[in-house]
Please model this.
Amino acid sequence: METILALQNINKIYGTAVKTQVLTDVSVSFANGSFNSIIGQSGSGKSTLMNIMGTLDTPTSGEVFVGGVNTSKMSASALASYRNRTIGFVFQFHYLLPEFTALENVLMPSRIGQGGRANKETIERAKDLMKLVGLEKVINNNATQMSGGQQQRTAIARALLNQPKLILADEPTGNLDSVSTETIYDLLRDINEKFGTTFVIITHDRRIAEKADRIIEIADGRINLDITR
Amino acid sequence: MKLSFDIAVRFLKSSLAQTIIIILGIGIGVSVQIFIGSLINGLQKSLIDTTIGNSSHITITSSDKEALIEDYDVLIRKAVESDERVSESSPAFDAAALLEQDGESQSLLVRGFDMEKAEGIYAFTEYIIEGNLPQNDGEVMLGVAVQEDFGLEVGDELTLITPDRRTVTCEVSGFFDYKVSQINKSWCVTELSTAQALFEKEDVVSSIEFQVREQDVFAADAVAKLVEAALDQDNLEVTNWKAQNGQLLSGLQGQSISSLMIQVFVMISVSLGIASVLAITVMQKSRQVGILKAMGIKNAASSLIFLFEGLILGIFGAATGVLLGLGLAFSFTKFAVKPDGSPVVALLIDPNFILISGAIAVGACILASLIPARKSLTLNPIDIIRNS
Model:
């Protein structure tokens, strides 16, 4: 199967005076359309790994290929455009813009990509996505006027808007109760099946991780376990 | 651009109270600038009006103090044609005479003008308090001080003794009050032909006086040079008010400079205020900027958000400032008044000055927003994500 994301010999060291190696020689790749989870204890380096995958952070050494493109050779501006088109992020803290409504938040990646107003077609797609995540009743609510679950679902709809090939989710249900957690995971799974979007989900919840096609465990900055079901 | 602008508007709207306070801050700065500027400009204008408004700006005299000027019509034409800034002109025949009335005497400066032309410089009709301008031969107009000293009335006959000891008589046509005691006490204004006849000097004048347009008052020296060049006569001397009023000029310049200094410092303090508030805004909005950057907004677009914030604050602040400034000026002219109801200082509301003040405020706001715009460049989304 085609590889959407590949990491080669990734090392990440923080600090200059006191050096802390967070990732050691990590090499891993993800197949297009797959549903993956990364588990590990706090401080194991899983979030750093995700940030490097998402080009938000740069490795101290090693290379990241997204869709076959080596991201280390791209300029900041090219990387921003590339990230906008190719990757959708869902973070533990939803990171919605409180100044905008739910719908406007969902439309933001498209507006960033096009630099202006969203066209009719995109607005329709955004509304469809909000329906898909069960938010049709709150589309005009301000981000601050929604429950935690609604906010996280808005963030998922936002991540999907530009139809990215890859969605990186860092503890997307970390702040939610068990019922909402279940709903969100089912939703992500549905999207994976419906659109063929690749998911890499970081979680510390083994029960959730086990729902993925592939489980990668990180311990002390190294891949400890890699199981494909 | 559109996205950055929309985000800027939302950021400002989301903290409306803060936005209004910043706009008021800019507005007050601009209003102080407009008020002080208008006040100083008004002061200068009234000072110039009272000191040189009704006097000659450029004067042509003979280099030889005793000699008189012939063919003055030709000289006037040449001078007026030399520069478009020359607006008024009049020939003048000045000579001293002794007024003798009921055993008392006083020296007078008889000033003969082409009354119609001289009206443009001296505005006699504005200052006449009794009677009329001297229109007929033998009529003269005197200052209010002479009227009081000699108990004169319109229509009275005057006896003047010329320097060559001839006695001539004239009739008083009216009295003027220039609010300058020297003039009120010594001037005896008459038609040029009357003055020439009194002193038996036909077709000659002692000086030719000019005024430049109001807005070119401070260019009188430059205009005088052009006039001198156009006349090209060694026997004539061209002087200007600036050369004769050094102290007044340096006073006016000092006032201008101090006004400018006040305005510059007001603007600097306003700019620093905006810069610091906008810098705090970046801190407040760093989370949002981080999110936008994670979603792929480019550095230039994120910086533009803050430049637009500066622009919007500047425009609204300047508009508020203009309104406040005009309001302040209006109330000043209404409440700070003299007993006769006229304002203590007539403010000079110059639309150009107001436009420039507004534009400077907008420019300063944009300049101030460069600091937060630069700061936003260094915001790294990973720092926001990692630190939440």
